[in-house]
Specification:
Blueprint lengths: L2 H15 L4 H8 L3 H8 L6 H10 L3 H30 L4 H13 L7 E5 L2 H13 L8 E7 L4 H14 L7 E6 L14 E6 L2 H15 L9
Parallel strand pairs: 2-3
Antiparallel strand pairs: 1-4, 2-4
Helix pairs in contact: 1-2, 5-9, 6-7, 6-9
Amino acid sequence: MASTDVVKKEKAREMRRAGHAIIEIVEATGVDRNVIRKWIKDIELTDAHKAALIARNPRWLAGFEGGQANRLKGQIQRKAAQEKGREAARQGDPLHRKGCILYWAEGAKHESSIHLINTDPDMLIFFMRFLRESLHVPDEWVSLYIHCNTEDVQEHERMKRYWLHTLHLPLSCFRKVLLKPKSKHIHTAQDNGICTIQVHKTNLVMHIFGAIQEYTGIDNPTWLF
């Protein structure tokens, strides 16, 4: 997390502890509402805070209770998806096990999308096999991004063709090339850029999280978000 984000997060948490509404925190920090919710989710409003918010905005309580109900519904759905992942893990399929453990090691722990970024084509080929065969992900659900440090448009096209061909994905899966400043600390060659595979399906990433916990014997309630 960037230093500016750390400062904004602490400000958001301080405001919530002081009893401010989410919309007030959004206006004060300029941060997206959903990000604010994640930052402050463990901070409970006191009865005094709620009374003050209702006094300032009589409609606040209805919105708050509606939000609470939606969050509870979402948590129930995510828990059910994790249980399906646990059930799949108990079947003992080697491809499923390897794909989930790979994601535990290399994947981003986003709550709403599968997100794996790497330069290793063999790793990404294997991960696509896992998505297709174990999670039954159709190609049209996959989004492909490339990070690179060149502004050469011809190189962008070459990298795009390389990753689409390597991963056997149609052109419709490609989203964009993202410029990444070259770091003086990185000495390894990245001739084909850094490839990101994304699948925006909450139930599938929760399936993976549930399976990881079943395979490893851990319990990570924060993955329910």
